[in-house]
Structure formats: structure tokens, C-alpha cells
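Possible regression after last week's pipeline update?

I re-ran a chain I had predicted before the update to compare outputs. Posting the input and the new output here so someone can diff against the archived version. Not blocking, just want to make sure nothing changed silently.
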Amino acid sequence: MSSQVFSVLFVVAVLLTLLVKLALMRRQIRHVRARRDAVPAPFAEAIGLESHRRAADYTAARMRLAIVEVVVNAGFVLVLTLGGGLQRIYGLAGTWFDAGGIAHGVALLATVAVLGWVVDLPLSLARTFGIEKRFGFNRMTPQLFVADLVREGLLAAVIGLPVLAAVLWLMGAMGDRWWLWVWLFWIGFNLLALFAWPAFIAPMFNKFTPLADEALKARVEGLLDRCGFRSRGLFVMDGSRRSAHGNAYFTGFGAAKRIVFFDTLLEKLLPEEVEAVLAHELGHFHHRHIWKRFSVIAAASLGLLWLLGWLMERPWFFTGLGMDGATGGTAVALALFALALPAFTFPFGPLMSHWSRKHEFEADAYAARHAHPGDLASALVKLYRDNASTLTPDPMYSRVFDSHPPALVRVSRLRPDFREPSPT
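New output (post-update):
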């Protein structure tokens, strides 16, 4: 393949991905706003018209910002590749470190990451202090926002830079099968992160306290006994420091498993509804959804690393993405691959979304067996209402992007009476 042909394929992939995303986001806005003034009949008793309108406006606002985000990201990728941005960063990093060395490669990749962070920062500010604040969800102060940025930057430096150095060393030292060694290292790192996150990293950002409500604790422990689930404890996270959104999850693996409730969730739901939500999360554990997803990601990453190894031997891969013929190396290949990959893998996104929605149905069914399905249904309705989640997503947008089923479909499976009336 010539570099010119690959350049054309890359531009076509970027533009097609951008156009499809824009078209679907515009469909979502039109679809939701067209149904803004009528609550779907099954939800009419639980969700008022003003709440429904608020959810529609919130969804439209988020979609408008997402449109800006995808345009900016596409432009960023094109500037760094065909615009020669990565070539300039390579030359700049070469003035600091010996060209082609590990330090030079880490500097190159870190610079690209920092530039991406700088480009995303205005969007993050608009999301947090614009949209989230306007709709009453943001509780983040500017001081906390800055503190989070500092902590994230320190973590990226302390953990990310050594990881990048290790990957680049393996790519250069392990011969033709370097991709297998990098994959093994990456899998080991992710398993270690699963263990370390709940115990060491998450507490850097949030406070976790043992669940103090004895009645709720007894109800939850009874559910855990019925489900055969063992954990290191039940914790409440101060999610209200940053947002009014509520959630619950379990994290870690093996002896490090722990169950976490957002304090905002406990404020909104009745004890039996909290139990049903937790039963749903335990359904993910019972069906091994996390490990199934991890296995798919692991297999895909192995294939992608092999592909990167193959592409590194093709000069057109470098020149077709904006590098001159004399520039190559492991760090450049890794950066180009990371920049170009999303445009070519976008068509697989709907498959992953479909798989995720299937998992949600399985977890709901498990919850319905171990808690009252009506309690889960009522909890979901409250969460849709309080989180301003739209009840009327565009079906095509939802099939491509949504990891969770539409509200009406999901709740009606738990409550068969909860359906739209048939047209007469």
C-alpha cells in the first residue's frame, strides 16, 4: 500500500466517523425535543411534566456539547497526524533527549497526552460548571476541581510515565515477539490496578465510610448471604462533594471486593429499593460480566498489538500519517496507532453497546429473582427522574451509543403492566 492511499483511507475513516456521530447526535436532540411536552404514559404518575422537560433539555445540552467535542477531537487528530503536529513534537522532544531513546519516546507520548488534556480542559469546564451547574447537578467547587486535576496529574506522572517507559523498553528489547510481552505486561498491570484501585487510589479522591444504617446493613447482608457474595465491607462514598447524581457499584476482586453506595443514592431511595439496586450489581458479578468484558478487551488488545507490530514494519504507516520518511520508532508508532485507531474501530462500537445492554437485562433478571422486581423498577424510575435521564431516546442513537437499555423497555421487563398503551 502506498502512503497516499493510506492517507486517503485514514481521512475517509475520520470524516465518516465524525459525520455518523454528528448525524446521530442531531437525531437524538430532535427526537428528544419533539417529545419534550408529553411524558410517556407509563411514567406519567411517577414523573411530572416539568421533570420530563428538564431531562429533555439536559439531554439536548449534553448532546450539543458532545457535538463540539467530537469535532474538536477529530480536528486534534488530523492536526497531530497529517497536519505535522506529531512530527514537530518528535523534533522538540529530540532537543531534550537523545532521539530514539526511551526518554525521548516517553517525552513524546507524554507531550501528546498533555496536549490532549489541554484541548479537553475547556470542554470539561463547560460540562462541569456550565451544563451540570445549570441543571442543578454540579457540587464541585473550583478549588476541588483544581485539586482533582493536581491529583490526576501526579498519578499520571507517578504511574503513567514508568508504565510508558516499561512498554517502550519491551518493544525495543524483546525482538519480533515484543507485542506478546507488552500484552502480558499490560494484562498484569490492569489486574494490579483492579486490586489497588479500591484500597489506594479511590480514597485519594473520595471519602469511604462503613455503612452506618444498621437496618439497611442487615437487609443488604441478608441479600449477600442469599446470593453467596462475600466482600470486605459495605461503604458509603461522598459522591455529593462533586455531583448530585446517584450510583452504586462493587469494585476489586478476590478478597479485595467491596460494595460502594453513593451517599446521594441512599438519600433518594427506600431501603428495599437500595437492596434491589444492589441485587442488580450482584447480577453483574454472578454472570461474570466484568471478567467477560476483560477477556474480550484482553483478546482484542493482543490482536491490536500484533497489528501494531506488523504496521511498524511498513513505511507507509508512518508517512501516510504525516511523518517524514526518516522518522519512525516505537514511540512514534504507538502514538500514531493510538491516534488513528478510533476512526477504524468505530463500527465495532454498536456491537459492544448491544452486548452491554444484554448484560444489563441479565443483571435485572437476576435482581428480580433475589429482590422484588417492583422495587428495582421503582428505583430505576426515581433514578431516571432525579438524574434527568431522558425517557425518550432516539432508537438509532441508543442502539449505537447507549450501554443501558431505554427506560421504557427496561422497566417494562420488570413490571409487565408498565407498557405504552396499544394504539386503537
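Follow-up from reviewer: compared with the archived run. The first strand starts at residue 208 and ends at 210. Marking as no regression found.
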